[in-house]
Amino acid sequence: MVNNMGLHPLPPVGGIAETLGVVWAMRHALAIVTSLVSSIAFGLSLGSAMAADCPGNPNALGVSRTIVVDPTEHHLLGSLNYKESLPLNDREVVLTFDDGPLPPYSTHVLDVLAAECVKATYFLVGRMARGYPNLVKRIYAEGHTIANHSQSHPFTFHKMSVEAASKEIEDGFTSIRTALGDPNGVSNFFRIPGLLRQDSVERHLTSKGYQTWSVDIVADDWLHVPASEVVRRTITRLEARGKGIVLLHDIQPATSGGIVELIRELKAHRFKIVHVVAATPERPKTETVASQWLGRPERPSFWPQVSVASLQLPDPVLSAPNPGNFGIADLTGNDKQYRDKPLPPIVLMPHGVSWVALSPSATLPAPAAENFNYVRVWQPRTAAPAHADKSKAAARSKVAARSTPATTSSTSSGLPKNTAQPKSSSQGAPNQPPRPPQQRPSTGHQLPGGVRPSGTVPL
Q: Is this model's pTM higher than 0.90 or not?
């Protein structure tokens, strides 16, 4: 007998248990080998099918599988801005191109993708689609998914009103559908220009049944870096994350020039291309589980999210202490136990002190002047003799009398002042610095510490 899982049940326990057990083990091993062979054959057939789908290029990258999504179920995609992303397996990549079409760059990108049988998602700008309707039709005819990237690509979606954003969105859809000539050929996918999102615009997109796309991997091709750098950053970030939605711009020369190298590196690193289309009544969505849509793992929380109001806490085991346990009769603070006991007297000094009065005759002698460094405090200076002042005044008057005629004669003769007669040596050189004032002898507290005069003066 075979159970519902397709596996044989365990051998019965009895006299022939060992024989049946060997037979069951052999059959179980054969079933596993058969399953492995089938999986390998399916993979080989998939590779053969991918090569067969791309005539003339047996080593084409191709498309590994197609995911059909329902825009009304998962509204926001892309781990750069949102919690969810596409349900991709490891090393699966979705290529997206923004801002086009624009020849010759978009034309070259389409040529390379066609040669490799790669399918991508094009987020077109409405004004660009109206300008190059033939490229829009070619994108659709070659099997790529066409989506909306607004009418004029404004960088103000994060601050514009919902009415203005709605006009940009709807005008973009109208322009792209008009350029394509098939209203049903444009998916309900939308990517906000510059990824400058705001909640109100995202709610409006959801209410209209549109699916808002962000990205997982950015190539930085709009930063005007070389094509080799665009390829390097794309592969490096894909290796770090393992899978994701890649943002490229087919209107950029670096992207157009590096698309061949990018395809080559994707094949060298064993990445697979996944094509994404919108679900229709004739094309049902791909069955997935919720965990596959997680774009970024939730950060672990060291503390559980617990609502205190929902907890059923038991009654406390120990009762609250009674104020009586502390000798308090009531809440007013009255002391029940020591209410009538007087307080001890306040003693400032614990030991007794006796004061002894000295007689007036028992006084200490005044300290001598030799006990201090400053022994000439406020010593008055002796006055200078009167005849010395008269001699100094007479000398100053003679100097003034000699200098006055020389100055007058030089001025009256018309000669410059600097041609006057040289002065005598007694008057000093004209550039000689002024004589410093004579220092007075130090007295009293001006004496430096430790210096004593030759004699002592009593206080």
A: no
**Tokens encoding 24:** 């069951």
pLDDT in tens, 122-177: 999 999 999 999 999 999 999 999 999 999 999 999 999 999 999 999 999 999 99
Q: Return the number of other C-beta atoms located less than 10 Å from residue 436's C-beta.
A: 6
8 Å CB contact between 295 and 85? yes
Can you read off the two tokens belonging to residue 359?
């007689």
Residue 98 in contact with residue 43, Cβ under 8 Å?
Answer: no
pLDDT digits (tens, 9 = 90+) for 193-203: 999 999 999 99
Residue 409: CA atoms inside 13 Å, Cβ hemisphere, count? 8
d(CA 225, CA 254): 7
pLDDT higher for 418 or 287?
A: 287
Q: Which residues are catalytic?
A: 98, 249
Non-local (6+) Cβ contacts of 312 within 8 A are none
pLDDT of residue 128: 97
- Where exactly are the structural domains of the chain? 10-53, 60-293
Report which DSSP code applies to 342: P
- What distance in Å separates the CA atoms of residue 198 and residue 208, rounded to the nearest whole number? 16
CA atoms of 413 and 134, how far apart (whole Å): 107
The CATH superfamily of 60-293 is Glycoside hydrolase/deacetylase (3.20.20.370)
d(CA 7, CA 5): 6
Per residue in 350-408, pLDDT (tens digit) is 666 666 666 666 667 777 767 766 545 556 666 666 565 666 677 777 766 666 554 44
**For residue 369, with 0-12 CB atoms within 10 Å meaning exposed, 13-18 middle and 19 or more buried, which class applies?**
middle
Q: How far apart are CA 23 and CA 37, in angstroms?
A: 21
Q: For strand 121-124 and strand 92-98, is the pairing parallel, antiparallel, or unpaired? A: parallel
Q: What residue has token string 């390829």?
A: 231
